[in-house]
């Protein structure tokens, strides 16, 4: 550390390296011999004010950096934990909304049954047997004011894809689409189908009543949830028993993690786990099989 030294003879001030302390030599001003004084012990030990300030700022910077690193690590950890929790919550919310959709549709089917003493046919046909439109059109009056208005405007003597009826397709009731099946919603495709067939609750060209259900109504499927059906909501097309692959992920389900939902003939909605045997699903589709499946939650 340089030492400030003044010549006792001429007063010239200069900086002398501390290694020359105690040495003799000529003054750079008057050339007379001088002795560089020894450096006091406390002078060597005490840092300059600038040095102390710099050290303080360096320490502050290190502490700040450490704090930022800790916060970043904690933030990453919290994000790692929170994101999956949010995703699970969103999936549960979609499943819950889907269940409410199915309860509304099941309620409409049961209201139709109370009025006509039978469920609607899966497909409405003309006198020649040509398919016109789906059962979903028939339950519109039981889906609230918007459904009633849509039913009033729908031309029941014309097929679903006539110019007039096609102009109504974009007004699909929200309950006909699962919130987990968004791609279908933008194409006005339904996520909910009945299973048709001679041994089902919706045989071709016929309407069945609850009195014809010999199995328990809470064990008999009314309609099911399906993924990306490609079926426009008013279109007379559903799953055909014996033709459709009732294995989940093929024709059924796939909209929710771990399984699918099915509406029962008593109006309840059950969640069927993805590992439920196909035979159990087939048993629930048949209303008079005399079998009990014990499936669903």
Automatic annotation (TrEMBL):
Keywords (alphabetical) are: Membrane, Transmembrane, Transmembrane helix
Every DUF1559 domain range: 88-189, 245-277
What Pfam family is a match, any one?
A: SBP_bac_10
Which stretches are transmembrane? 57-86
Question: Matching PANTHER family, A to Z?
Answer: GENERAL SECRETION PATHWAY PROTEIN G, TYPE II SECRETION SYSTEM PROTEIN H
User: How is this protein named in the record?
Assistant: DUF1559 domain-containing protein
Q: Which organism is it from?
A: Pirellula staleyi (strain ATCC 27377 / DSM 6068 / ICPB 4128) (Pirella staleyi)
Query: Source organism lineage?
Result: Bacteria, Pseudomonadati, Planctomycetota, Planctomycetia, Pirellulales
């Amino acid at each position: 550390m340089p030492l400030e030294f003044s010549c006792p003879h001429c007063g010239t001030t200069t900086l002398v390296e501390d290694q020359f302390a105690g040495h003799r030599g000529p003054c750079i001003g008057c050339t007379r011999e001088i002795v560089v004084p020894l450096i006091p012990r406390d002078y060597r030990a005490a840092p300059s004010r600038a040095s102390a300030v710099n050290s303080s700022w360096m320490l502050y910077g290190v502490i700040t950096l450490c704090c930022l690193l800790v916060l970043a690590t904690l933030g990453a950890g919290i994000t790692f934990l929170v994101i999956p929790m949010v995703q699970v919550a969103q999936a549960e919310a979609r499943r819950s909304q889907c269940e409410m959709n199915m309860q509304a549709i099941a309620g409409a089917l049961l209201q139709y049954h109370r009025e006509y003493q039978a469920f609607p046919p899966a497909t409405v046909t003309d006198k020649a047997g040509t398919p016109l439109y789906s059962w979903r059109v028939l339950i519109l009056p039981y889906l609230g004011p918007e459904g009633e208005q849509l039913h009033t405007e729908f031309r029941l003597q014309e097929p679903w894809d006539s110019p007039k009826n096609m102009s109504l397709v974009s007004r699909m009731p929200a309950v006909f689409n699962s919130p987990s099946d968004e791609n279908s919603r933008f194409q006005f495709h339904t996520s909910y189908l009945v299973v048709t067939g001679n041994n089902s609750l919706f045989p071709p060209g016929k309407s069945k009543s609850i009195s014809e259900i010999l199995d328990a109504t809470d064990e008999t499927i009314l309609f099911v949830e399906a993924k990306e059906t490609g079926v426009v909501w008013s279109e007379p097309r559903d799953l055909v028993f014996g033709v459709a692959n009732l294995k989940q992920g093929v024709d059924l389900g796939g909209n929710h993690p771990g399984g699918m939902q099915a509406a029962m003939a008593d109006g309840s909605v059950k969640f069927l786990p993805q590992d439920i045997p196909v035979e159990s699903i087939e048993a629930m589709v048949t209303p008079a099989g005399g079998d009990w499946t014990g499936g669903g939650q």
